[in-house]
Amino acid sequence: MNFIRSFFAATLGSLFALCLFLIFVLLFISGIAALGSSASTPVYISEGSVLRLDIDRPLVDRAPAFDNLNAALGLEPEAVGLDVLLTSIEKARTDDRILGISINAGFPQAGWAQLHELRESLIRFKNQGKWINAHSDFWSQKGYYLASVADRIYVHPMGTIDLKGLAAEVLYFKDFQDRFGAKMEVVRLGKYKSAVEPYLDNTMSEENRSQIKALLDSFWENIQNDIRASRALDEKTLERIVNNLEATQPSDALTLGIVDKLSDASDYEEELKAYLGTSKINWVDAADYGRATDTEQTTDRIAVLYASGPILYGEGSEAYIGQDALIEAIDDIVEHPLIKGVVLRIDSPGGAALTAEIIWKHLQKIKNKKPFVVSLGNVAASGGYYMAMTEAPIMASPLSVTGSIGVFATLPNFKKLSEDLGINAEHVTTHQNALGYSLFETLSPGQESQIQKGIGHTYQTFKTRVADARKMSEEEVERLAQGRVWSGKEALEKGLVDQFGGWQAALEYVAKEAQLESYSVVSYPKWEPSLERLMSGLFPAGQTHAWMEFLAPKLNQYIGLSAKKHPQHLLQMELPYTIKID
Fold first, then answer.
1. How far, in Å, CA of 528 to CA of 521, rounded?
2. How distant, in Å, are the alpha carbons of 168, 286, 435, 464, 541 from that of 310?
3. Residue 321 DSSP code
4. pLDDT band, very low/low/confident/very high, at 566 (cuts 50, 70, 90)
5. Is 301-574 in the same CATH topology as 49-164+245-293?
6. For residue 58, what are the β-bridge partners?
7. Is 200's pLDDT higher than 80?
8. What is the CATH number of domain 301-574?
9. In what order do the strands lie in the sheet containing 572-574?
């Protein structure tokens, strides 16, 4: 019996080991293939070509240096860079080989500010006398917003058009915490700093409701104005269509002038062939064309320094902002003799206050050395806005989310849960506050007092940075602060940004300041492909990453997890809530 038991155990162990080995080999081969694919293949453009703008996939501000493993294995779509698409559209505008653009963006995975920038670039393309068409089997609201710039919009006869207005949803967890015993200890400052509100209440506060409503109204005003201008619709008509969902069905949308023709993909292509007078369309993918046109180099360069993702303490990667990578990039930019100007491109909801301060300090090296401008993307809030306080001009989209000048701290607490499970944590200390933070104890009055003191200091420093950079009094800043978020349009009215403009406008501003007639664009930080970074896409980033960084040393005491070399700091300057505006 023991022999049989041992035999099966050994067999199962061997099979398990073999499976692990095969998985590792697959990951290794996929990784090598993906790393090798980072080299771009030459793209040749023939006369009479049509640029295909396909953004039914994730859109990021900066083209990925390499694909993560999920993309390499086909588990998720490959991301495309906004920088590449904007470069493509701008180059195609004056390229006689490119006749027009065909948009395929039924369900773009992009932010509103990114779509606004693309839309502005497409308008410039049209003003050159070239045409734009758009086709999709269905149009989401974001997709239709981009497509509305086209000369003709097509939709499948059995598809849908999602024009319904904007909404935001926030989940509240107080009852959940009370029921299961796992809760967040919260210390905050500012009546609008509502990132922690869902842990404290079951319903939305009036302050939070008012700021979300103001943000949505500001966004919608810009969105509907852009659609009306392109589709020649008056405000009352468009509002009625949206409010009553009158354009959901393709036939109704056609009657109302929301779309121009009902057509499936094959019929659309045949119509395009007839218009061009050809039997075959020379398609050119916008991402490939952007890489092809990027081969032209000039001596003078403008650096675009990307700060994208949540702000954490550490090295940094394409998924999150860390001080090490940004400091190295800033030093290289300042010392590089061929870099004549700098664009700081921020797309971040904020995060660790200490990291934001460290990066802010190093950014001061740039402003007195080279022409410098800050460009805000989808979100530049809290720590993201903090980094922008360099006294350099700030450019934003009307649909950028910005502001959120405030600070908070949250700490998970499992005391009640552990007691319910029969786990009791006992402590022996030399001083009343010696325990510090524990997963299994509530904060002591002394600890809470010190955290509140730290929040007050950080909040005051934040307001001082804003007052100095924006030439405001502390009283003016306080009226705009307390964690409240603003749209880019509101931020311009309040003096939090200087002018409207996107990535391309920021480059043109710096080129003018540096008196450059021609230049190449170089991106920072520099990311070197590695198997570790390739596999980073398999694991969640953002707040999950942040909390694991912070909790790892604590959990290590109990379950043996290895900890990072540096802790995640408590004080957070972060967006008041997860904003997903649809």
1. 18
2. 20, 28, 29, 23, 8
3. B
4. very low
5. yes
6. 109
7. yes
8. 3.90.226.10
9. 183-189, 407-413, 572-574, 350-352
pLDDT in tens, 461-489: 999 999 999 999 999 999 999 889 999 99
Residue position matching structure tokens 């930019």: 333
* Residue 398 · residue 115 · CB < 8 Å: no
Query: Taking the domain 49-164+245-293, which CATH number applies?
Result: 3.90.226.10
Q: What is the DSSP letter of 40?
A: P
pTM as predicted: 0.85
Q: Go through the chain and tell me how many residues it has.
A: 582
How many Cβ atoms are within 10 Å of 567's Cβ, its own excluded?
Answer: 15
Percent of the chain surpassing pLDDT 70? 80
> Can you give the residue ranges of every domain in the chain?
49-164+245-293, 301-574
- For the chain, how big is the Rg over CA atoms in Å? 26
Mean pLDDT of the chain: 84
Estimate to the nearest angstrom the gap between the alpha carbon of 9 and the chain centroid.
48
Query: Which candidate, 288, 285, 254, 358, places its Cα nearest to that of 569?
Result: 358
d(CA 125, CA 29): 42
Mean pLDDT of 298-309: 93
- 572, 58, 569, 66: which is closest to 348 by C-alpha? 572
CA dist 454 and 151 (Å) reads: 55
| pLDDT one-digit tens code per residue, 256-280 | 999 999 999 999 999 999 999 999 9
Q: pLDDT-derived band of residue 67, with 50, 70 and 90 as boundaries?
A: low
Angle at 249 between CA 243 and CA 253, to 5 degrees: 75
Contact 303, 333 (CB under 8 A): yes
Number of CB atoms found within 10 A of residue 278's CB: 12
Which of 483, 549, 458 shows the shortest CA–CA distance to 195?
483
Please provide residue 65's backbone torsions phi and psi, each rounded to the nearest 5 degrees. Answer: -65, -30
**Tokens 């694909």, located at residue:** 67
pLDDT in tens, 353-399: 999 999 999 999 998 899 999 999 999 999 999 999 999 999 999 99
Contact between residue 542 and residue 317 where contact means Cβ atoms under 8 Å apart = no
